[in-house]
């Protein structure tokens, strides 16, 4: 969780640098956009971590009972990663 928060702090600097151009152009959103981008990425990271923990535990149990379902467990474990990709997309669109 701490790694995600540190990543959000680091990535808001990137967004702040991109937002500096908007501040020079007279836009009043110079402080809000990096904050919104950090929140978008941070909350998707937290949601992914919470869901992946439960799915991972269920996938391990499923594979322990039937080894042929390894690929299914792997797919279900990788699905929450798309949530973070949507967070990155929202961050860079802001």
Describe, in short, the structure shown:
By secondary structure, this protein is mainly α. It has helices at residues 2-24, 32-65, 70-78, 81-93.
SSE order and pairing:
Layout: H1 2-24, H2 32-65, H3 70-78, H4 81-93
Task: Describe the overall structure.
With 94 residues, the protein is mainly alpha-helical. It has one domain: F1FO ATP Synthase. It is elongated. Helices cover 84% and strands 0% of the residues.
Q: Report the CATH topology name.
A: F1FO ATP Synthase
CATH class descriptor: Mainly Alpha
String of helices and strands: HHHH
Question: In the residues, how many domains can be counted?
Answer: 1
Indicate the CATH architecture.
Answer: Up-down Bundle
Residue share in β-strands: under 5%
Average of per-residue pLDDT values: 79
Q: What gap, in angstroms, lies between the N and C termini?
A: 24 Å
Instruction: Note the overall shape.
Output: elongated
Largest sheet: none
Low-confidence stretches: none
Helical run tally = 4
């Amino acid at each position: 969780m701490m790694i995600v928060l540190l990543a959000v702090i680091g990535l808001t600097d990137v967004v702040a640098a991109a937002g500096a151009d908007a501040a020079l152009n007279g836009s009043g959103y110079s402080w809000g956009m990096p904050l919104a981008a950090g929140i978008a990425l941070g909350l998707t990271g937290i949601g992914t971590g919470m869901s992946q923990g439960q799915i991972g535990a269920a996938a391990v149990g499923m594979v322990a009972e039937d080894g042929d379902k390894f690929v299914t467990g792997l797919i279900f474990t990788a699905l929450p990663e798309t949530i973070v990709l949507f967070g990155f997309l929202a961050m860079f669109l802001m």
